[in-house]
Here is the input.
Amino acid sequence: MISVFFTYPLELIRVRMAFQTSSPSNISTPPSAPSSSSFIRVLQQIYHEGPTSTPSSSSLSRSSYIDKFPLLKFYRGFTVTVIGMIPYAGVSFLSWGFLRERLIPDRSRATPAADLYIGAVSGAAAQTVSYPFEVVRRRMQVGGLTRPDRWLRWGETVSAIWRVGGWRGFYVGLGIGYLKMVPMTAVSFTVWQGVKRLLGV
Here is the structure.
């Protein structure tokens, strides 16, 4: 959680750069917004985001608070990320421990190939369970582009996803998520176990 807190602004900038590059015609940016998606320009755009019209009374206090602390704009979706870490890490390590106990009861017979397989299955299970949090987080991260006058909340983001796609809306792009997270988790667990065997711990 501490590492995510310090690196989250970079993650937000990365998502914004990818979003602007992949679908520039689908976003409504203010006239003053830069046409390029360079790191510095995206950083400046996020910092200067704000309401394009007078906020309603219900959102006035939230808008004023964010305008007073503009660095908070770099933490859109942060709470979703932190909460999403719980099912991802929990399912990942639970699957890893359970499968290793069942498939390799004799730890001395463990091999890198077995570690890769078990790590891949663990990564797939963890990604499946935690992916809805990922979808909600992405929506909130790009909220400054689609609705610069609003600070998207959990409830309205989840409701918007549900209205458009139902429960399937929370798993859009899951296949791409597998392509990223499954090999990453497999390699991570394999390297972890390989280093432990190398050091004799």
